[in-house]
């Protein structure tokens, strides 16, 4: 029986006529330069690509704040970059301590188990950051070779703000530090070399405001030496860092690189360099603080302690009697704004990463969110929220451009 040709709807008929404003926990809107670069295909080997790769690496060194030569791209989601760090640094019997305070940090632990790591989880209650005395005790007890931690735990909107201290304790215990910076890189300071972090991973579609599917990893010299010392090759051929270095360091073939996505990443990194990290961090801090104050002025409650809230995603508690799934579908259908629910917690999440973090997007999102809550029967004071957003943005001197 031959398979008949399927009936296909055109993309134009499937996609909304007016694009949704993507204000969830990723993917985020991309700048026009990134979108344009993503439409170009060039030879994945050869001089032009080699020069572009060189520029991606030097811009990434600035964004990761590292002098390490070991910047490698990954054709895959942020999770593939996480897996690349794990599959290269962990092998059967490697002792791993995973600091887990949510969905993504627990994913590191699962990945380490799957490559045979001897994984101990340091469970931190949701919404809280690890207690340093407890961490020190766990390091002394477990004596791990690798510690994993999420700098920003997007799932619970929790900011592990003392990554520098975590890394210091781990280094003192002779342990390599692997940090997930998918939602924090370029939104809040992360000093890879100064803090002595050995592997930092990020995806494209969050803090960097690039496309999903092309990710980056930065490895310290110490991490590279451990990879060189592996007793056998890592189990995942595509994620083998030494093979990937063929392309990222010697302009030769590993697998066909996602050229369009790398060009998009080049543009996203170039925009960050032009903005400068200082200004970008200030934009995220200013916008996030303003949005948080506005949500509270509207009469709603933010999730988490003020000092452990991310500047890249904010969590809002769902008032009693309202269904969080209904909030997300209503705001999308009625106001053309996309926000995120959560994994388990009764919160909704509004993203503030890269292009999301612009005053005009914040006003539209606050209006859409406040109106949605009112439509669903919550008591909210939307004018008070909008006034607070304006006042807070003026106070930090943030201009909408
Ligand atoms: C989104 C996210 C990931 C996973 O990224 P994917 O591209 O979905 O694989 C990992 N860690 C954190 C902190 C994230 O926010």
List keywords for this structure.
about 400 residues; alpha/beta; Aspartate Aminotransferase, domain 1; Aspartate Aminotransferase, domain 2; two-stranded parallel ribbon
Structure description:
The protein is of the alpha/beta class and 401 residues long. The protein has 2 domains: 140 residues, Aspartate Aminotransferase, domain 1; 243 residues, Type I PLP-dependent aspartate aminotransferase-like (Major domain) (Aspartate Aminotransferase, domain 2, 3-Layer(aba) Sandwich), CATH 3.40.640.10. The chain has 15 helices and 13 strands. Helix 8 links the parallel strand 8 and strand 9. Helix 4 crosses helix 5, helix 6 runs parallel beside helix 7 and helix 12 runs parallel beside helix 14. The site of pyridoxal-5'-phosphate has 14 residues, from helix 4.
Report the average pLDDT across residues: 96
Kindly state the percentage of residues in helix.
40-55%
Largest sheet: 7 strands, mixed
The sequence of SSEs as H and E is HEHHEHEHEHEEEHEHEEHHHHEHEEHH
CATH topology tier name of the largest domain: Aspartate Aminotransferase, domain 2
InterPro entries: Aminotrans_V_dom, Aminotrans_V_PyrdxlP_BS, PyrdxlP-dep_Trfase, PyrdxlP-dep_Trfase_major, PyrdxlP-dep_Trfase_small, SP_NH2Trfase/AEP_transaminase
Keywords: Aminotransferase, Pyridoxal phosphate, Transferase
Organism: Pseudoduganella armeniaca
GO biological process, one term: glycine biosynthetic process, by transamination of glyoxylate
């Amino acid at each position: 029986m031959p398979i008949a040709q399927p009936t296909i709807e055109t993309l134009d008929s499937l996609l909304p006529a007016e694009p949704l404003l993507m204000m969830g926990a990723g993917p985020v809107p991309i700048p026009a330069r990134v979108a344009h670069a993503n439409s170009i295909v060039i030879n994945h080997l050869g001089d032009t690509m080699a020069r572009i790769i060189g520029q991606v690496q030097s811009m990434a060194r600035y964004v990761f704040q590292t002098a390490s030569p070991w910047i490698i791209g990954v054709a895959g989601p942020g999770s593939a970059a996480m897996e690349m760090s794990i599959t290269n640094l962990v092998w059967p019997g490697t002792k791993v301590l995973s600091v887990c305070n949510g969905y993504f940090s627990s994913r590191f632990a699962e990945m380490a188990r799957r490559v045979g790591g001897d994984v101990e989880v340091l469970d931190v209650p949701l919404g809280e950051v690890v207690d340093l005395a407890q961490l020190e005790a766990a390091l002394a007890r477990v004596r791990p070779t690798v510690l994993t931690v999420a700098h920003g735990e997007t799932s619970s909107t929790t900011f592990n703000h003392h990554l520098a201290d975590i890394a210091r304790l781990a280094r003192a215990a002779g342990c390599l530090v692997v940090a997930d910076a998918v939602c924090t890189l370029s939104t809040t300071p992360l000093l890879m070399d100064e803090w002595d972090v050995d592997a930092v991973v990020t995806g494209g579609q969050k803090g960097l405001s690039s496309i999903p599917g092309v990710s980056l990893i930065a490895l310290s010299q110490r991490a590279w030496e451990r990879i060189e010392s592996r007793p056998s090759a890592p189990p995942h051929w595509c994620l083998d860092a030494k093979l990937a270095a063929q392309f990222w360091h010697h302009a030769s073939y590993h697998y066909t690189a996602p050229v369009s996505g790398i060009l998009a990443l080049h543009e996203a990194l170039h925009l960050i360099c032009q903005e400068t990290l200082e200004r970008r961090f200030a934009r995220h801090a200013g916008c996030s603080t303003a949005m948080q104050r506005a949500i509270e002025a509207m009469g709603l409650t933010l999730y988490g302690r003020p000092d452990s809230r991310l500047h890249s995603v904010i969590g809002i508690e769902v008032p009693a009697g309202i269904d969080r799934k209904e909030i997300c579908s209503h705001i999308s259908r009625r106001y053309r704004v996309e926000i995120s629910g959560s994994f388990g917690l009764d919160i909704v999440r509004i993203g503030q990463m890269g292009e999301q973090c612009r005053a005009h997007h914040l006003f539209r999102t606050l209006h859409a969110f406040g109106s949605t809550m009112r439509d669903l029967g919550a008591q909210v004071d939307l004018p008070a929220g909008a006034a607070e957003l304006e006042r807070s943005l003026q106070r930090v001197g943030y201009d909408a451009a």
